[in-house]
């Protein structure tokens, strides 16, 4: 549990746990600190994937399934103890959604709320992955070509950000390996969840088909656009909005 989860402030009397899933290449620092910002009713866990921080020497997860299996198996006991919710940003959105699917299908557990951020809906991502697959020979020649292909096909600022920061290149390679092998088939799109979903994004980000998230649950869905780009959530004013909104939603869910 300790190597997978960062929890900066334990709250044994909390009525709900918020499990946070960082974006590709990120550690736990930015989201784990939310544990000090929420009231005592909400305890925050942040997922630490292999190859990051204290797990730096561990090999990256070979695919999405491996990452999901580790997370759900390690967290299973905790998730049975009290209600829980997920917050995922960018790649973390896909990982949190995949974990929610497995928890429901395999264990009959479901988050009380999914908070999703800065990510295309899975069916759109599936089409993008198919484009990448068609260009596999180009994409596997070098890390630079992988980034070039993504910038051309997705026109997405986060990849420009990574391209401008060479020290994150190896993390992008891990991200590519993980996403490439995990696809959401059409059969996965038949309203798999029943929890409420709230989707957030930055006003300057390039995200496709955000409304498609409402097709993935029979619960209520809501959408919020906040000022900023792909990492809008790092702005103090936006962080404050997220904390207040998530708190209110979880308190209502547990009444």
Note down, in words, how this protein is organized.
It is a single chain. It is globular and about 35 Å long. Strands 1-3-2-4-5-6-7 form a seven-stranded mixed beta sheet, sandwiched between helices. The longest helix has 18 residues, at 64-81. By secondary structure, the protein is of the alpha/beta class. Helix 2 (64-81) packs across helix 3 (91-107). The protein starts with a strand and ends with a helix. It contains nine helices and seven strands, in the order ββαβαβαβαααααββα. The protein has helices at 29-32, 64-81, 91-107, 122-134, 136-139, 143-154, 157-163, 169-180, 236-253, and strands spanning 5-6, 16-21, 42-47, 84-89, 113-117, 196-202, 221-226. It has one domain (5-122, 190-253): Rossmann fold (3-Layer(aba) Sandwich), CATH 3.40.50.1820. It comes from Taeniopygia guttata (Zebra finch). This is oleoyl-[acyl-carrier-protein] hydrolase. GO terms for molecular function: fatty acyl-[ACP] hydrolase activity. Residues 17-249 form the Thioesterase domain.
Give a brief outline of the structure.
The protein has 255 residues and is of the alpha/beta class. Helix content is 41%, strand content 15%.
How does the SSE layout of this entry go?
Blueprint: E1 5-6, E2 16-21, H1 29-32, E3 42-47, H2 64-81, E4 84-89, H3 91-107, E5 113-117, H4 122-134, H5 136-139, H6 143-154, H7 157-163, H8 169-180, E6 196-202, E7 221-226, H9 236-253
Parallel strand pairs: 2-3, 2-4, 4-5, 5-6, 6-7
Antiparallel strand pairs: 1-3
Helix pairs in contact: 2-3, 6-7, 6-8
Organism: Taeniopygia guttata (Zebra finch)
Domain Thioesterase: 17-249
Pfam family, one: Thioesterase
